[in-house]
Amino acid sequence: QVHLVESGGGLVQAGDSLRLSCTASGRPFSSLTMGWFRRPPGEEREFVAAISRSDEGTHYANSVKGRFTISREDAKNTAYLQMNSLEPDDTAVYYCAAGGPSGWEYWGQGTHVTVSS
User: Fold this and answer.
1) Looking at residue 95, what DSSP letter applies?
2) 19 with 82: CB under 8 angstroms?
3) Euclidean distance between CA atoms 93 and 8, whole angstroms
4) What is d(CA 21, CA 70) in angstroms, rounded to the nearest whole number?
5) What are phi and psi of 22, to 5 degrees?
6) How far is the C-alpha of 17 from the C-alpha of 43, rounded, in Å?
7) 37, 95 in Cβ contact below 8 A?
8) Which helix (H) or strand (E) holds 4?
9) pLDDT tens, per residue, the chain with 117 residues
């Protein structure tokens, strides 16, 4: 079992930046693929970004490519999502996810990000 805790959400203005953090416990962090998803108000959850084990590769949704950066620090059991040039459409609950070959197995409780225009 893996326990994920997100932090770093908040209320910002368009054009601002935020960094989300996700700290994991319960299983060797380096064995996990880490990801970020979000659920905008009234919409379905959507993929944002993922980073593979050992930082071998990253993937982004087209809507955030060039603005968001996912990274990981295995020594701290933590993954990050650096969000720059935030837009009102980025308003959502952001969820950290962890998984392996079977897919996304573990989820955090979510952190709210609100971007005002």
Assistant:
1) E
2) yes
3) 12
4) 10
5) -135, 115
6) 23
7) yes
8) strand 3-7
9) 899 999 999 999 999 999 999 999 998 899 999 999 999 999 999 999 999 987 679 999 999 999 999 999 999 999 999 999 999 999 999 999 999 878 899 999 999 999 999
